Amino acid sequence: MTEVFDIAVIGAGVMGATAALFLARGGMRVALIDRGGICQEASGVNAGTLTLHMTRAALIPHAMRGREMWLDAPNWLGMDVGARSAPGLSVAFTADERDMLEKRAAARREAGAPITLITAAQAAEIELGVNPTILAAAYCALDGHVTAYLTGRAYRQALTVAGVTLFEGEAAAGIARESGAWAVRVGAGCVRATRIVLAGGVWLEEMLSWLGLTVPIRCLINQLVVTERLGPVMRSVLGIANGLLSLKQFENGTVLIGGGWQGRGDVVRGGVEAIPDNLIGNVRLARHTVPALGKARIARIWLGLESETADAMPAIGPLPGVPDAFVVGCVHSGYTSGPFMGRLLADIVLGVAESPHAFNPARLLAAAGSSLQDSVA
Amino acid sequence: MTAKTDVVVLGAGPAGVGAAIAARRYGLSVIVMDEATEAGGQVYRAPAPGLPRDTAETRPGETLRATLAASGALCRLGEIVWSITPLADGAGFRVDSLGEAGPRMVEATRLILATGAQERVVPFPGWTLPGIIGLAGATILLKSQGMAPGTATLVAGTGPLLAAVAAGILKVGGHVAAVVDIASRADWLATLPALASRPALFGRGLGWHAKIRAAGVPLLFGHVIEKAEANGAKLEITLAPVDRTGRLQDGARRRMTVDSVAVGHGLVPASDAARLLRAASDYDQARGHWQPRTDAGFRASLPGLYVAGDGAGIAGADAAFLQGQIAGLSAAADHGCAVPAEEIAALRRSASRVGTVGTAMARLSVPRRGQIAAIAPETIVCRCEDVTRAEIDRAIGEGARDINQLKSWTRCGMGPCQGRVCGDIVGALVAAGTGRARAEVGVFTARTPLRPLPVEALTGVYEYADIRLPPAAPL
Ligand SMILES: Cc1cc2nc3c(=O)[nH]c(=O)nc-3n(C[C@H](O)[C@H](O)[C@H](O)COP(=O)(O)OP(=O)(O)OC[C@H]3O[C@@H](n4cnc5c(N)ncnc54)[C@H](O)[C@@H]3O)c2cc1C
Ligand SMILES: Cc1cc2nc3c(=O)[nH]c(=O)nc-3n(C[C@H](O)[C@H](O)[C@H](O)COP(=O)(O)OP(=O)(O)OC[C@H]3O[C@@H](n4cnc5c(N)ncnc54)[C@H](O)[C@@H]3O)c2cc1C
């Protein structure tokens, strides 16, 4: 392997894969390395909710643009990944929840999300399936969902067409600086490139440590539950005020129940197992919200890993003090905004955009008290 | 209040009963769980109420049930086990089940998996039509209901269940249109040494064959069902000769009209529970199936976990009973009981002796290369999600390299059976299409629930205030 790529992207989730795609379209020769297949981790197993009700207020403008990109996927990605627009409702069952709903809707509206408060009767008109005992709801027209498990298939095609060189099933084991270029160790050999992008999702902490950088990254173990196919029971994307439910029915009739209830697992072994009490809690909440779910049968429960920085804001941009090295990841509701954030990173590398201040990786290094190793820089 | 026990045995077939009585002999507290309402498993399945229980066929099962009842093991029957999770610090396992009493759970220091086998069917055009059932499925009908699958049944596939089912249908007064075996006479002759080591089993097999011949049922070796087509309530079947690799030959086709077909191509271990726990497993080239990795005492790769019987690798009912006892004794020994080494050694010798036939039958049933190649493009492979071979091949062509990637790309294996039925065939197709080994292509990841779980039964009657919500997500 004597070829020196213009850039090597390590990690082929939605962040790395989108960045690689737009870097190649921007004229670079790109290597994309993943230890598994394209988008088989968080980006292939997530709930695929395109919701502003659950997005951190500060990320709303980006999530709105990511959502538009998903809906437009046939045009820029080349394949329909099942992205559909649907009305989004967040409901309150108690007076406390109604207060919370009002506060949260106001904050998100200020950030640009077109969220309005509606009455229970209005909610029931939008969503026949919702429990009539709700007290109030927040409504957003810009919601929807994507079939996340199709992501990898779509990206693999697009990346191949764009001429990205794929290293699948190849774990990167370290990075070194050799004669003015980066050498990424994979298996017995290495991939050489002028620049690198680290896009390792929850594994970013390890990747950054290859460069001597210490950035603590928290790992969430999110549980999802899917039912067998059912006749139509709902048409919207439903959540509750405190953010612990996401509920939708796909075109094939299956209903996906999520909301960030936690399971067990770890970064090394992956998402391992559901905690039965959390499973029952999540399903009870779903059934309470859409009573018709009582008739469903659960087909499968799985878990995926999501990353979070200390201040819960993403890391997107150049790594300070390290030449030609970039990072993209730790985006909350990162699937929704993924295509936008990945393209943003590509634009930053290509020199046509700047890293937004709130996403600058330097702040995380400063917070963690990390110093740069001279050997690397 | 959490129920606790030394041992949970999952599965009340011969392996599970063997395990329970052995562990009980050393005084361990044992709970046996099975979704069936009576113990017995597949071979010794109890007849439905009202059917005779004192026949030559039912007696061994009655003996097995009596043995279990006398052992002092607690039985939780009629409950599906849907979740198994390791307790903190390797302290054992939490087993969640669902039955008429609603959801229940128990914590066990040790867990013995005796979950048996599941049937493999190599798909052909029309195999999902009504009236076509599995060979093993047909044994259930015959045993529990004393019923033939139809008025005229074609029996096809491979292995000992062919003759067993044909003879069983004749016995209940049904009509067998033909017995169609992909194996040649020469393939069967090769199993003779193994069969000869078990005169009783061999004798039973000869008895089935005598019955089939006496009824004048045509026996076709080296043949397969090329396709099945619906014609009103009838099925039009086309039979074709194959070569040794299972590839279709040009020779004359035969056509047959029946109203039911029982077809099957051997068994594979029901290993979802072991895979759920991420116990190490290996692809057994000779028997053509994945199986949990076990040591000589049937300990799996996780401390406190044991796997025995067909779930640990196909070896048949007699071997299952002995393997179960070995696993039960291993559990007792690991628990600190003084189990004489000779007791285990003697069982081990018997188990490997009686296991040779089951193993030979498993080998006979390994899907042949040409048989997999012959699956037509338009044939449905995943019957839950209607995924055809052509769709699978297209995804492989686009770059799907392993079975779980193929699953995301096509929905193959995502339906209610969670890939139990198609997994083995899909593995063979991905291996063939990518040129990779079965071990590299992998197995479908197993997930909770082990069986589809009715929401109503799981969630019960509750108020909103009863739901323990985690802290709110940050804004
Ligand atoms: C269960 C679940 C549900 C979710 N639901 C939603 C939702 O409804 N809406 C929403 O907007 N967001 C959701 N998210 C969040 C979203 O999925 C993630 O934010 C997003 O997918 C992260 O993308 P990523 O590319 O950063 O990481 P990943 O997709 O995890 O990609 C990281 C990649 O790096 C690779 N890698 C790691 N180490 C190495 C190495 N050493 N060498 C090579 N490759 C390596 C991995 O194999 C992986 O492919 C959910 C997350 C989970 C887990
Ligand atoms: C459908 C079928 C029919 C068969 N018929 C014959 C036959 O007629 N003659 C013959 O010689 N061999 C037959 N076999 C082969 C037979 O499986 C074995 O040789 C023998 O029964 C193995 O014994 P075992 O104890 O390992 O498993 P089994 O006897 O299969 O017992 C396993 C038990 O585990 C239970 N179980 C598994 N998972 C769960 C769960 N999640 N929750 C609750 N319970 C669970 C099952 O209900 C079952 O009762 C058949 C196999 C199958 C699959």
Fraction of residues in helix of chain B: 25-40%
Point out poorly predicted stretches of chain A: 372-377
Shape of chain A: elongated
Ligands in the model, by name, code or SMILES, are: flavin-adenine dinucleotide
Beta-strand proportion of chain B:
15-25%
The CA-CA distance between the termini of chain B, in Å, is 37 Å
In which range does the helix fraction of chain A lie? 25-40%
How many helical elements of chain B? Answer: 16
Structural class of chain B, by secondary structure, is alpha/beta
Shape of chain B: globular
Q: Could you name the ranges of chain B where pLDDT drops below 50 across 5 or more consecutive residues?
A: none
Instruction: Round the mean pLDDT of chain A to the nearest integer and report it.
Output: 94
User: Strand content of the residues of chain A, in percent?
Assistant: 25-35%
Description:
The complex is a heterodimer of chains A (377) and B (475). With 377 residues, chain A is of the alpha/beta class. Chain A has 11 helices and 18 strands. In chain A, the strands form 4 sheets. In chain A, strands 1, 2, 6, 7, 8, 9, 17 and 18 form an 8-stranded mixed beta sheet that branches. A 4-stranded mixed beta sheet of chain A has the order 4-5-3-11. A 4-stranded antiparallel beta sheet of chain A has the order 12-13-10-16, with helices on one face. In chain A, strand 8 (181-186) and strand 9 form a beta hairpin. Chain A is elongated, with a radius of gyration of 21 Å. With 475 residues, chain B is of the alpha/beta class. In chain B, the strands form 6 sheets. In chain B, strands 1, 2, 3, 4, 5, 6 and 19 form a 7-stranded mixed beta sheet that branches. In chain B, helix 3 (135-145) runs parallel beside helix 4 and helix 4 (161-171) packs across helix 7. The radius of gyration of chain B is 23 Å and the shape is globular. The mean pLDDT of chain B is 95. Strand 16 of chain A pairs antiparallel with strand 22 (453-454) of chain B, so a sheet runs across the interface. The structure holds flavin-adenine dinucleotide (FAD) (2 copies).
